[in-house]
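Quick start: read one record
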Amino acid sequence: MRATVVLTALNFVSGVLRFAVGAVVWSLLASAALAQEMVVQIGHVAPMSGWLARVGSDSANGARLAIETLNRQGKTIDGRRVVFNLVVADDAGEAGRAIVAAESLVASKVAGVVGHLLSDATIAGAAVYAAAGLPQIAPSATRVAYTRQGWTTAFRVIADDARIGRLLARYAVDEKKAKRFMVIDDRTRYGQDLAEEFSNGVLAAGGQVVGRMQVDEATNDSGDLRAGMVSKNADAVFFGGLDRQAGLLLKQMRRLGFDVLFIGGDAICTPDLVSYWSAGAALDDQVLCALPAGIGDIGEAALTQFAADYRARFGRAAEYYAPYAYDAVMVLADAMVRASSTEPSAVLRALADTSDFRGLTGTIAFDPRGDVRHPAISIFTYRGEERHSIRTLR
């Protein structure tokens, strides 16, 4: 009996020891697995507050989808499995706050940044990233100046204003048969630059710029608009600025009886232009505007799947720059994988060498300035207060 008790006790102790050893082994294995895992932070910055928060949120959501896709794919860098994490910063669409937001991302040790939304904020933040040697990919900034500062850290995955202006002008002259253009801008650097690019495009296409005006919310003057339109006999108006100001101009034109073609760039080409800012003022097919190809023009398989995934994840449609924010995150991660490093200088070299990355919005390759090669734009109009795609141009 005593021998049986002793044997049972020994078996119990042996079992406890086996359990303890097993637990230690599993703990060591788990620790080893964790040691092989790398957390990589990618920054995204846009207006997450203020009147542009809806657009900024759309971009951030596109970046989130990319992060979630990357984590499902199980990417590795230098033999270690990577867990990507998105760090979101808010610049409220203001250049001053963009600098603060950029500094916060640098302090957070992000490996790269996607943003900002507006061109002025993008350029302001870019100076901070350049000083830190940190890669930045702009998903929506179109001002030509962004990639003309000599920063080796600045890239973009979207057409710039020079291309948007030229393609819009060519389409207006060749396809819409407009010849005499009144060109208006909102006094901002963005609006002035886009208006200048469009004017150059009109002249190259054989049209005429018969007058130039500047407007802002504080000094909208219907008398100046009437005088300019009548004296110059314009058959089209181009506006360089944002949708809310464009809406006011469309309302003025309707009151004055000018139902000529109204043209603008990506900043007026929003779902709100006709349904909100100029509700009841625009005629069907009167407005002509441009967006980077792929926004509001879902058709190819990858973009169609992205649109479905976005709606399932966030409960609404992608309306603005979400596909470009998605591609910016993906091409940044691809550069890290190809570099087998998250060290900024190595990632920057890999980004500069990007030549055939297949993104949602097309094949991404960068020229020596950091601009995407051969970007396309989609031409839109409005009918029944809804935006409709006309065609895509390159």
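The chain is about 45% helix and 20% strand.
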